[in-house]
Structure formats: C-alpha cells, structure tokens
Amino acid sequence: MAIAVNDSNFEEVVLKAEVPVLVDFWAEWCGPCRRVAPIIEELAGEYEGKVLIGKCDIEDAVDTANEFDICTIPTIVYIRDGEVKDRQVGSASKADIKARIE
Q: Which residue among the candidates 14, 30, 43, 76 is catalytic per the annotation?
C-alpha cells in the first residue's frame, strides 16, 4: 500500500528514505489522478521493500507541492538520496512508470 505523505512527514518519510522513492502528487477531484491511483497501489505492492511509493494530496500538502513546483496533476516525482532524479507529468501507464523506476 502506498504511504500517505504530507507537509508534516514529507522530509522524514521521503527525503530521508534509504530506498528510492516515487511520490504521486494528486487530488481527489482530479480525474486523471483517479485513473493512475490503482497503478500506484499495484506498484506499491510489487516494489515493497525496494522502492517507497508515496501519495501526496496537494490539498493537504500545499507547502510541499509548492516546494516541488507541482503545477499540474498527476505529477510523479522520482527521488533518490533526497534529490529529485526525474518527474512525470500527467497520466501514465504502468509500463511507463515501471520503466522510470528501473
């Protein structure tokens, strides 16, 4: 299961993670976000222990969304060692997301 991250836990959970991290920035009212959500959950199970999969609701994490320049959702940000390595804006297929993880 994907981990919920927000302004209060983002640094500890994401930036200090010992494994690579994928963060899905989303919102409840976003149609494309709802289409990507099941894929994110599947990947959380497939990569458990290897990649931390987080979901960040921009409504609950305004400061974090601003810090990462999230202007369009869904946006998936790939982080390793506390640094952004890649980002994917818009709806994406499972194959596309897995390719970026690898």
A: 30
| Closest of 67, 43, 45 to residue 56, by C-alpha | 67
Is 33 among the residues known to form the active site? yes
Q: Tell me the pLDDT tens digit for each residue of 31-90.
A: 999 999 999 999 999 999 999 999 999 999 999 999 999 999 999 999 999 999 999 999
For residue 87 the two structure tokens come to: 């980002």
Whole-prediction pTM: 0.94
Q: How is residue 39 written in tokens? A: 């894929």
Candidates 2, 14, 21, 33; catalytic one: 33
71 assigned to active site:
no
